[in-house]
Structure prediction request, 204 residues.
Amino acid sequence: MARLQTGQKLVVASHNAGKVREINDLVQPFGVEAVSAGELNLPEPEETGQTFAENAILKARSAADASGLPALADDSGLCVDALAGAPGIYSARWAGPSKDFALAMRNLEEKLQADGATAPDTRKAHFFCALCIAWPDGGDTVYEGRVDGTLVWPPRGDRGFGYDPVFVADGETITFGEMDPGRKHAMSHRAMAFAKLVEDLFDG
Ligand code: IMP
Prediction:
């Protein structure tokens, strides 16, 4: 049963401008009015979960309770095979308090180099996304998606955010940082999770 109608107000439970922009782009065609947690001055809960899904639920539940509106949260990150899935749920934290992703990408590259991971097949990674919709009257659902690819060095492009400049999705030659945002939206981890949400929550 569809539970999100045209004109429905929805909180995007994120304080990350890049994610808010991408989620806005995703929900906009469905006529949903998205407001961000930042605009509503909602508190930012501590991400104490051990999985992407647990953290997405924490964020969506907190925003739904504080706003009285349905809330959509994204918890996502980059998982590198050669680093046993790191940075994973700590992807944002690797950038430090100043959100310095040039530094986070450099740290990642140094660890790969230290492991001798120079050949493309030793540099496999995926972006993972858990999207949670939480309802103000209780209940929530999580939708997950991933996109597989390879890490490149040096970083290329300034069109995305986070680790986009070092990620080339399988079958592509340019990084997510170089890619037209519309094209990234068609293949990203967030897009895959969102497609499942759409099937569940919106009228076809
Ligand atoms: P969190 O979900 O707010 O804990 O942070 C997720 C972090 O993962 C972001 O700050 C980015 O560093 C990274 N990330 C998630 N999705 C993407 C993406 O689509 N492109 C690049 N980096 C991403």
